[in-house]
């Protein structure tokens, strides 16, 4: 069991893949910290989103309360890939998806440069939609699938 586990993302349209990622963090840790990307960081990376930071924060908080009512959590604004809590703070594990798993190595290299112990990297498999392709906010935004991964168009 970890004391503080981190995970991060845009969480534009919350779907079952996000819930699974959070579920993993909750199941292995006393407290979780979720890095929520800032609007500035998103636009720097050229991503398209539906919801601004405040709306995404509110939606994420609501999803956590509904799905994990006894979870001890904090949501922190991310203006870069990790945020100070993960690079310098007391985080002892990072939960990533297969898609973002390379960030674990980058984080541990940054921590090593600062003479900090590496964090445990926990990789959660990508959640697949009913068509066998991965679930993503982009696919939901494009009305290809719903939040549970059910295909809406053939």
Describe the structure.
The structure is a single chain. The chain is of the alpha/beta class and 154 residues long. The protein has one domain: Rossmann fold, CATH 3.40.50.620. It is 36% helix and 21% strand. It is built from 6 helices and 5 strands. The protein has helices at residues 16-28, 39-44, 53-67, 84-87, 102-113, 137-141, and strands at 2-9, 29-37, 73-78, 93-97, 120-124. A 5-stranded parallel sheet has the order 3-2-1-4-5, sandwiched between helices. Helix 5 links the parallel strand 4 and strand 5 (120-124). The protein is globular, with a radius of gyration of 15 Å. The N and C termini lie far apart (43 Å).
Features:
6 helices; five-stranded parallel β-sheet; Rossmann fold; 154 residues; alpha/beta
């Amino acid at each position: 069991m970890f004391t503080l586990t981190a995970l991060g993302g845009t969480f534009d349209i919350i779907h079952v893949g996000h819930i699974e990622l959070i579920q993993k963090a909750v199941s292995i840790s006393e407290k979780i910290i979720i890095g929520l990307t800032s609007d500035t960081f998103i636009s720097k990376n050229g991503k398209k989103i539906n919801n601004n930071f405040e709306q995404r924060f509110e939606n994420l908080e609501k999803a956590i309360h509904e799905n994990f009512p006894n979870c001890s959590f904090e949501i922190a604004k991310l203006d870069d890939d990790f945020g100070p809590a993960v690079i310098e703070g007391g985080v002892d594990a990072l939960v990533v998806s297969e898609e973002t798993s390379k960030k674990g190595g980058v984080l541990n290299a940054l921590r090593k440069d600062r003479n900090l112990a590496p964090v445990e990297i926990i990789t959660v498999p990508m959640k697949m939609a009913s068509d066998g392709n991965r679930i993503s906010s982009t696919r939901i935004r494009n009305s290809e699938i719903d939040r549970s991964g059910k295909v809406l168009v053939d």
